[in-house]
Write a structure and sequence with these properties.
The protein is α+β, with helices and mostly antiparallel strands. It contains 5 helices and 3 strands, in the order E-H-H-E-E-H-H-H. It has a 3-stranded mixed beta sheet with strand order 1-2-3.
Length: 85
């Protein structure tokens, strides 16, 4: 992964973007510390899809449904609400 100081990335953004599209992710540093990464949109979408399960996966999964704790019927506590004057 190529590293670009933020000043270079700003001054040569078109080249920065072309490098990202041709070579893959590009790192941006600020004062020598890693600050951000520019990634092609296809890779971004792939990472987003892999990061969380879809609604269909959640509904079909046994593990997520069994973690839900439901109190026994009639055992739920109710708040006492004082009537306002």
């Amino acid at each position: 992964m190529h590293t670009w100081p933020v000043q270079d990335a700003k001054a040569r953004f078109s080249e920065f973007l072309d490098a990202c599209l041709a070579e893959g992710p590009q790192m941006v540093t600020r004062r020598g510390a890693e600050a951000a990464v520019l990634v092609p949109v296809q890779e971004w979408r792939r990472m987003q899809a892999a990061a969380r399960p879809s609604l269909k996966q959640l509904l079909l999964s046994d593990t997520f449904r069994t973690e839900l704790v439901v109190p026994a019927r009639g055992q739920a506590r109710r708040r006492n609400v004082e009537p306002q004057p």
